[in-house]
Amino acid sequence: MPSKETETTNNLIGTRLREARLRANLPQDKLGVLIGLDEGSSSARISRYETGIHEPALATAQKLAEILNLPLCYLYCEDDEMAELILVLHALKKSELQKLLRQYEIPKVS
């Protein structure tokens, strides 16, 4: 039986995955095929990830993030506002991101 922590993590990843897949307007079966799953089982497998029945292995989560054009950390982010911020930052051009980082630079610990 999965622990409460594992159950929560699976549901978190599943929720984030479903949100991202729907934003990308991809059906479950197509997403599964795009990450290399067999066409016959791809929809069921993605559904199990989204419902929290199974958690994708890290390599699979990386493929999902790549296909959905997301940073991997988005799938694992526990805070909804932080997850949205991750998507905003991910969409910035490199120059915009560097400018933002300079503006909010955190002092280094000596």
Write the layout of secondary structure elements.
Layout: H1 4-23, H2 28-34, H3 42-51, H4 58-67, H5 72-76, H6 80-91, H7 94-103
Description of the structure:
It is a single chain. This protein is mainly alpha-helical. The chain has helices at residues 4-23, 28-34, 42-51, 58-67, 72-76, 80-91, 94-103. It is elongated, with a radius of gyration of 16 Å. The N and C termini lie far apart (45 Å). Mean pLDDT is 90; it is low at 1-7.
Which features does this protein show?
110 residues, 0% strand, disordered N terminus, single chain, mainly alpha, 67% helix
Biggest β-sheet description: none
Q: What class, by secondary structure content?
A: mainly alpha
Please tell me how large the radius of gyration is. Answer: 16 Å
**Average residue-wise pLDDT:** 90
Q: What sequence of helices (H) and strands (E) makes up the elements? A: HHHHHHH
Span between termini: 45 Å
Strand portion? under 5%
Number of helical regions: 7
Give me the count of strands.
Answer: 0
The level of helicity is 55-70%
Shape field: elongated
Low-confidence stretches: 1-7
